[in-house]
């Protein structure tokens, strides 16, 4: 039932840490999910420096999916979108042929507070990798929710299809992305709806197949069986999966089925040929000169 357990690796982003889960050496992708970062939880005091913000940087070939449990982030991008994201909302940015964006902690800088959420990258199918860049924001009314009769499971479908429901978020390949809140003793099922599935424990402890798993662990499941979860403590779990989209190369912020396309994107970024968000022209992030060559991802 459980093929692999992936422990998050802590990464310092220059002001706060994230727990990086995907990509992982033994399992590069889960369905179309090519990247998975657990942001925080981190406590910020009012007045922290702007150096903590994520300055403008580029992407190709993916959609970025930002979802928060606590806090607020202001998104700005090169297609002209400026959008705060708050808990229970989804920012879905399709990079396609190329986009740049920044992520600012303006509200937290003003009043302080907790930052806690997930950012994932979803690889576009090869035939859509060069689609026009776009941005969409979705509030809770677009995201179906469910509560069990005993009150011990609350669920929100963040994107895709699952459990007979569908979120009003435009996706580009068959996938599921779901947020569970479980109270101690609560039970929930992950059906065998997709060939690739995983669950990330963002908070608390859950039991699966007679074993306990804690916050910061991703469980990757074999296809074909329904997976039953029991909450040992109150817990937050993110479910993800879908149909595979084929091998990918990744270098820095660029993802593509073509190594040559990544080299082109690197050259475009170094030469200043990728448009920046209108308010961000003085703070773009340079491509690391020591970046490793693209690695194949499967």
UniProtKB/TrEMBL annotation:
Task: Specify one Pfam family.
Answer: Pirin_C
The organism's taxonomic lineage, starting at the top: Bacteria, Pseudomonadati, Pseudomonadota, Alphaproteobacteria, Caulobacterales
Q: How is the cofactor bound?
A: Binds 1 Fe cation per subunit.
As cofactor, the record names: Fe cation
Gene Ontology molecular function: any one: metal ion binding
* Name the UniProt record assigns to this protein: Pirin family protein
Residue stretches making up the Pirin C-terminal domain: 177-274
Q: Which residues form the Pirin N-terminal domain?
A: 16-122
Q: Spell out the family assignment given in the record's similarity comment.
A: Belongs to the pirin family.
Q: Which UniProt keywords apply?
A: Iron, Metal-binding
